[in-house]
Amino acid sequence: MAVQLATWSQFEAEAPELAAAGHELLHQFGLGLAFIATIRADGGPRLHPVCVIVTDGGLFVALVPSPKTRDLERDPRLAVHSFPPAESDDEFAMTGRVVRVDDTARRAAVQAAYRNRIEAHDTVFELLLETALVARYKFRGDWPPAYTRWRVGRGTNQPAAASVAT
């Protein structure tokens, strides 16, 4: 069964409020920052901080040759999580897959939106979304948060406090 995936612009069209909240949380420090989880060759998880770039209708990362690059070239599945905000516990998370961007025009668009130089040996990946989630807290430490979830092709749910099994 093929996994349905969406570009950032498709996500924005299907779930504009959720995409805006995700963009805000990813860019809360000016530069887009997130943690990306990849899968090591032995099947274990690996977590990395990355700069994310929203441009040209997509969500991208430009990676130097590294273990995370090798992970994504071998297995394109990933999870992304925003950095924690200074003033709240709000969160943005997504799952999906990457597609390597070799097209010169798309790489140039990513470079134009990014403050650091993307070198020829760097790999640019577009992050395609399968799911996204925003968790909003009334105040720091509040539990449970109000979750808004989205899945490609299924839309969003209404924000609601999660139930926690005890």
How would you portray this structure in words?
The protein has a single domain (8-150), classed as Pnp Oxidase, Chain A. It is α+β, with helices and mostly antiparallel strands and 166 residues long. Strands 1, 2, 3, 4, 5, 6, 7, 8, 9 and 10 form a ten-stranded antiparallel sheet that branches. It is built from four helices and ten strands. A hairpin with a 3-residue loop joins strand 8 and strand 9 (155-156).
Structure summary:
The chain is of the alpha+beta class. The protein contains four helices and ten strands.
Summed over residues and divided by their number, the pLDDT gives a mean of 91
Output the CATH topology.
Pnp Oxidase, Chain A
CATH homologous superfamily heading: Electron Transport, Fmn-binding Protein, Chain A
Number of helices: 4
Any idea what the CATH architecture is? Roll
How many structural domains in the coordinates?
1
Helical amount: 10-25%
Main pleated-sheet profile: 10 strands, antiparallel
Rg from alpha-carbon coordinates: 16 Å
Order of helices and strands: HHEEEEHEEHEEEE
Strand tally? 10
What structural class do you assign from the helix and strand content? alpha+beta
Distance between the termini: 35 Å
Uncertain spans? 160-166
What fraction strand? Answer: 35-45%
Structural shape: globular
Task: Please give the CATH class.
Answer: Mainly Beta
Secondary structure elements and pairings:
Elements: H1 8-14, H2 16-26, E1 33-39, E2 45-51, E3 53-55, E4 58-63, H3 67-74, E5 77-82, E6 91-101, H4 104-113, E7 123-136, E8 146-151, E9 155-156, E10 160-161
Antiparallel strand pairs: 1-2, 1-5, 3-4, 4-7, 5-6, 6-7, 7-8, 8-9, 8-10
Helix pairs in contact: 1-2
